[in-house]
Amino acid sequence: MPIVKNQDIHIFYEVIGQGQPLVLLHGFAGNSKDWQRNGYVETLSDDYQLILIDERGHGLSDKPHDPAAYEMQKRTSDIVAVLEDLDLRKSHVWGYSMGGEVCFGLAQFHADCIESLIIGGMAPLPPAHPEAYDDQIAVLKSGIAAAADAWGYDSSERREEFLRNDPKALIASTIAARDWSGCEDILETLEIPCLIYVGKADSFMFDAAKRGASQISKAKLVIIPGLDHGQAYADSRLILPHVRDFLQNRIKK
Predict the structure, then answer these.
(1) DSSP character for 165?
(2) Greatest Cα-to-Cα distance within the chain, rounded to the nearest angstrom
(3) Nearest-CA neighbor of 205 among 179, 186, 231?
(4) Which of 30, 98, 168, 240 would you label with 38, given CA atoms 20 to 30 Å apart?
(5) What 3-state class would DSSP assign to 100?
(6) What's the chain's average pLDDT?
(7) How many whole angstroms separate alpha carbon 140 and alpha carbon 250?
(8) Helix (H, G, I), strand (E, B) or coil at 152
């Protein structure tokens, strides 16, 4: 199992496939296996070197309990550490939800490492509804099993996976996300090609994603009809055609 040490944090990652490197960053309370479960890896691994990373606080990576450990500069430095471990100077990067937040952080702090960005269900803005994060913290304080019940993890496989999470690490990660100031100040000068997509029924991120995309000159916005926040991650059949077209156009150039 490849593990890289970034300062005092061990980060697990896995490499599948060959071709242009493409980093995949999962959402909150998930792990790198989500990309396999949702059908992305099987479809993309013939054409891309997929780099699946368990972000700090998740999966097989270390899970600190201090919110300061999840500051954006530290989270993005984990991704750079993985690229350096693989002797890669640059990569395409795709993140969903929390992973998309890290993508924007990479654009802010490590733009020279990015070929292009694919960002789903996230905006480069401070949280519009910080109280939603406080609600999330309150649920997690009731315990990981109670959180699984509250958030509808009813299938045995998904529930078992979710129960492996460390609730104190998830709380720390949530506090850092709630307090993130965004990166709106870099958007107008951002030269990295971006694909931003969001479900039309994503009440959490729809308006913010549209606003953020409108401020990036090299951003393409795709709105997926009928999908909410979770569905726009889980339904790879509706997402992959847009991503494939975007990446192929970048590689041709």
Answers:
(1) S
(2) 51
(3) 231
(4) 168
(5) helix
(6) 96
(7) 40
(8) coil
Question: How many angstroms separate the CA atoms of 108 and 114, rounded?
Answer: 11
Query: Helix, strand, or coil here: 250?
Result: helix
> What single-letter DSSP state applies at residue 140?
H
What Rg value do the Cα atoms of the chain yield, rounded?
A: 17
Amino acid at the residue 181: S
For residue range 110-147, list pLDDT tens digits in order: 999 999 999 999 999 988 888 999 999 999 999 999 99
Secondary structure class of 14 (helix, strand, coil) = strand
Full set of structural domains in the chain with CATH: 3-126+181-252 (3.40.50.1820)
C-alpha separations of 205 from 79, 97, 123, 212 in Å = 24, 9, 7, 10
Q: Is the pTM of this model over 0.90?
A: yes
* Tokens standing for residue 111: 């733009």
